[in-house]
DNA sequence: CATGCCGTGATACAGATGTACCATGCGAAT
DNA sequence: ATTCGCATGGTACATCTGTATCACGGCATG
């Protein structure tokens, strides 16, 4: 049916307007009216397609997660075929770092949500740990594969090393968003650490 | 003069009420009226001691920074006398990690400010890079000292390693606040990485 | 043709928020 | 004793926010 397709299209249009505002002005500026104006629709329509504001926020957050997953899939695909474990780890981590417009947008928007979700324990339980745990598991698995291939010292603990790498890129991303350094400097620090990890 | 002392005392009382709300409910819940109620004073007094809300937010942020600096000074003092460079690095990094009530409070409150400041470029320039750069410089200096003492391989780049450590603890802190793991697990990951750094 | 549902618009409403204004008490200085 | 400045209280005001309500046109189905 055509109506349903347009429905989803409208929801996407409105949710992405919200994400655009969250990126450029922060979530506290994303009022229903501001989202409506940004999306070029009336306030009533935002209400119509998302009954409540919480619904809109949650839907947009889900779309943001999908966008990040898309980006990661693209960077993984660009890691070569077949990719080495080291290439996969490098791709995934570098992909998260705010080095270009898209990753900066995603990082900034995630940060906007982060502070909001920290004081909402139930939303935290639902959306918080899932993606991050998945990332760390993936990294740990690739590190184990690298150990089997001899590209990584067997003395390293894959789980702990994976957690450290994930935390490192998150922290580096924060420093980039905070203006402490630019994306290239952060990437240089990351690759430096990866070199030390895989060459020792 | 007594009046001035009370003045500062009132400002402290009100600013700490703001920080308490930012910690427990987030900065978006820290309205003038909420701060007044939390501090046990009238709305008019909050206006009187801080002409504008922005002034209150900035003052409270400065106090938060001082509290973190105090905590770091205490942890440095507890690192032994004379402390080894490694002990200093460990103390400073572990002190930032949200492992007890105070550090969790500071980390949560900083996060609340973080999202707000990200979309205010001028405030970002003033408060953003200073503390973080200072921390990294301190860490780099201690790493150089460790290299002179033979406790750290001279092959490591102090600046890059210091930046990596700072980013690591920030990222670990994020994961703790997000509920991905508890403070002890984060501390275990940090000490594991420090062991690998200093023993290799 | 009539009916009724769906998308859309305009607007109303209640509450919150930052700030401004007026008033009052009180201690000190003239 | 009067005046003056500071600390404090109460409250008004304009604006914004999320949500609810009323209204209208179109289109399909009976």
From TrEMBL, chains A, B:
Q: Carries keyword DNA-binding?
A: yes
Q: Name one GO molecular function term.
A: DNA-binding transcription factor activity
Q: Name one Pfam family in it.
A: TetR_C_6
Top-rank lineage group of the source organism:
Bacteria
Q: Which UniProt keywords apply?
A: DNA-binding, Repressor, Transcription, Transcription regulation
Q: Which residues bind DNA?
A: 31-50
Q: Which PANTHER family match?
A: HTH-TYPE TRANSCRIPTIONAL REGULATOR BETI (PTHR30055:SF234), HTH-TYPE TRANSCRIPTIONAL REGULATOR RUTR (PTHR30055)
Recorded protein name is: TetR family transcriptional regulator
Upper lineage is: Bacteria, Bacillati, Actinomycetota, Actinomycetes, Kitasatosporales
């Amino acid at each position: 049916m055509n109506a349903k397709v347009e429905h989803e299209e409208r929801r996407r249009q409105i949710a992405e307007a919200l994400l655009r505002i969250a990126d450029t002005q922060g979530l506290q500026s994303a009022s229903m009216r501001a989202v409506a104006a940004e999306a070029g629709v009336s306030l009533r329509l935002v209400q119509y397609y998302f009954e409540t504001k919480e619904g809109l926020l949650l839907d947009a957050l889900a779309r943001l997660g999908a966008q990040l997953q898309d980006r990661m899939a693209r960077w993984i695909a660009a890691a070569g075929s077949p990719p080495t474990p080291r290439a996969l780890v490098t791709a995934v981590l570098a992909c998260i770092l705010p080095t270009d417009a898209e990753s900066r947008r995603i990082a900034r928007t995630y940060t906007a949500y982060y502070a909001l979700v920290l004081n909402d324990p139930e939303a935290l339980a639902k959306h918080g740990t899932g993606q991050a745990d998945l990332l760390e598991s993936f990294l740990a698995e690739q590190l184990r594969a690298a150990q089997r291939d001899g590209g990584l010292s067997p003395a390293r603990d894959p789980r702990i090393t994976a957690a450290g790498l994930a935390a490192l890129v998150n922290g580096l991303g924060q420093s980039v968003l905070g203006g402490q350094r630019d994306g290239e400097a952060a990437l240089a620090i990351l690759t430096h650490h990866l070199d030390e990890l895989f060459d020792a």
